[in-house]
Amino acid sequence: MNFDALFQPLCFLTAALLVVIGLYAVIFMDNLLKKIIGVTLISDGVNLVLITSGFNKIVAIISPDMFEDGVTSATFEGLQEFPEFATQAAFPLPSALVLTSIVISVSIFAIMLALAIRLYQHYGSMSCSTIFKEVEE
Amino acid sequence: MISGFVLMGYIFMFCALFGSVLALIQRDLMKAVILIGLEGLAVAFLYQMLRAPDVGITQAILGAALLPGIFAITVYKTRREEE
């Protein structure tokens, strides 16, 4: 049983479970802060999917015979002269995208928490059912 | 066989999932905020193991320090116990 080869699939599984737990919190939790915690979990899960999909992707680009549907690109042909680097490097595009996504998500959570504070000051409760009841009246 | 590096990765995956589940079942919201910081730190170490160290550093600063900070400010401004 080779546990090292299971690292990338288990990372995908972790990301999927984070998204599922976050969706459960957003839909079924009553407290407003717990709902915002669920949104942070969804954000972490999606970023983890993107980073995990770029793990060891350069190996697939350089030596396509190791994988069944190898993707070849003429841009990375020069990397065949550096096999030690090529077997250990990750694909750099998803990390560049996720770096921006993390910073933007933190500012979005700051705005969400500020709106939650304003809701509490206006209605006097953090419970969603209480707020909805007071809105209907 | 399993190497120590990959075993640490599995431990961090377990920490991320278990911390997020524990954060959602807390009645005290400050404990939930601290557990969200634990989850962000585990995900940051996981980014480091997936060979994206720049994303890991950014997640460790923003997701494990700044985000629980602004959550704690929100808990301080509103009520601490979940009704």
Q: What does the model show?
A:
The complex is a heterodimer of chains A (137) and B (83). Chain A has 6 helices and no strands. By secondary structure, chain A is mainly α. Chain A has a single domain (4-55, 90-136), classed as Helix Hairpins (Orthogonal Bundle), CATH 1.10.287. The termini of chain A are far apart. Chain B has a domain at 28-83. Chain B has 3 helices and no strands. Chain B has helices spanning 4-24, 29-49, 53-77. At the A-B interface, helix 1, helix 2 and helix 5 of A face helix 1, helix 2 and helix 3 of B.
Describe the structure in brief.
The complex is a heterodimer of chains A (137) and B (83). Chain A is an all-alpha fold and 137 residues long.
Summarize the main sheet of chain A.
none
- H/E element string of chain A? HHHHHH
Beta-strand proportion of chain A: under 5%
- The CATH architecture category of chain A equals Orthogonal Bundle
Q: SSE order of chain B, as H and E?
A: HHH
Mean of all residue-level pLDDT scores of chain A: 82
CATH names the topology of chain A as Helix Hairpins
Major sheet of chain B? none
Radius of gyration of chain B: 14 Å
N-end to C-end Cα span of chain B: 49 Å
Envelope shape of chain B: flat
Q: Supply the number of structural domains of chain A.
A: 1
List keywords for this structure.
heterodimer, A: 137 residues, mainly alpha, Helix Hairpins, 6 helices, B: 83 residues, 3 helices, 81% helix
